Amino acid sequence: MDLLELAPDAVKRATAAGAEQAEAFAMRYGTRHVYIEDDAPKVAEDRQEDGLGLRVAQGKGGSFASATRTGGSRVAGGG
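^ thats the sequence. predicted structure below, dont judge the formating
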């Protein structure tokens, strides 16, 4: 399931469970690292991190929870 689908689903589930207010935050972050020696790539790494946060309020109380998922691949270059 894509982050854009997870965020509204999290809000719907929170309000169905009794939260008076709910707000979801979604983020995606990516990085790419390459080490080059003698004009040849030695190590390349692609890393992506997805995150989802949920803020809920009930009466005068509130809470926030978040989770992240990381994924990546590492490729050793020639030499």
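The chain is about 20% helix and 65% strand.
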